[in-house]
Hints:
Helices cover 72% and strands 0% of the residues. The chain is mainly α. Keywords: Acyltransferase, Membrane, Transferase, Transmembrane, Transmembrane helix, Wnt signaling pathway.
Amino acid sequence: MLSYLLHSQFECLGGLSPYDVWELCIQASCMDIAPKIVYMLIYNLVYQLISAYFSHKVFHLCSIVGGFAVMRLAISHSNITHFLVFLAVGYVCMYCANRVHLKKQIKTEYIAVLLCIVYLLLCEFVYPNQDDWIQSRGLFMIAAMKIISLCFDLQNGHYFPSPYVYAGYMLCPANVMFGPWISFTEYNIARVMSQRKKFTWVLRTIHVLLLSFFFLSMSNCLSIIVIPSVIDNKWISAYRRAFSFRCSHYFISFLSEATMLCGGYGDSKNQYVITRPFDIELPTSLVSVVVSWNIPMHRFLKKYVYLEILRFGYFKAILGTYLISSLLHGFNLEIAAVLVTIGAYSFVQFRLQEKLARSFNACLRVRPCRTCTHKYKRSNWLIKLVLLIFACITICDLIFLGVLMDSVGYPDAPSIYEKWGDLDFLSHWVMLGLYIITFI
């Protein structure tokens, strides 16, 4: 019976048997990338050992060497050279901005933001080899975030790093390729954290590696099993594509956590949480999705973008944050459309749920109250029903937005209008209706 199930062909698998899916897809995709991941983890383990037992100068030099070794596993020599040019330009700009700030006592950190965004936009629209740029876009985005955060920190009293310390921070092997963003202070903590590892650190590292390969398999091979292709419905088909894209994000996020743990980073529980798939797949609101999608990037945007713009108003701060985020991603049209739309949707949902919470004295805010004083708590069945409706709307929004992401970088892909038109622009109409309700 087991042999029959393994080798029999199933229509939902495109005529392949489960054994064929395992051998031709899951095993092939995992084994193709496994050697590079193993080398990456080894480089970071060596980096952690040196961080714990050698001087601070050796720690930075090891970070530089490890960063080069990791980059050579994944990107071309021309991309590495281009990346080093970007880091050099960033350092010169940061030095000049800091000198002007010290002499004139004026805020100049926004120069770094402008420089990084202009550089990324030029690469997105002018760079001659677009295939090379797509391969290394994430590398530049993480570096740009580091430059921006360091420039802000410098003008808040942080010491100016020497060139080799700056290079160590930028090329840190634990996050140079896949992220996440870490602050300069957090980068230096590795030397302390590396001396506190316990057996739970080994278990957590193995755990996140298994999760990473599981989501890689889900993205490449198994999403069609979870959501069979025999179900002929445009929303189900769109959900399958969006789910596959989200699984690829989870793969990168858990792989990033594994490299961070091997590099010596983590909290007191030997974790470095980057994403929370459960909060994304079963969301209570778009705000929870945004926070859980990439936790370190959320911290970066909140501290260095959102709080800087908040003095101009809440709505401007929300849209400005998502606009800056899309610019850091290179202002790819699909990514920009998704991020700006999420910003608008989040504002509408936040405003409506705040109004409902005030009007009915009910705990209906997008985030649970820390000390709830509402008459109707979240344990109330009617409140649970209303929150479930908002959760279903959020899931539909994720489908609607996710269909744009499954073909980013492909020149022959359908346009944004065509993809959203296939779904009748339903999510836009729902949000427009919710926005109108806020004025009633």
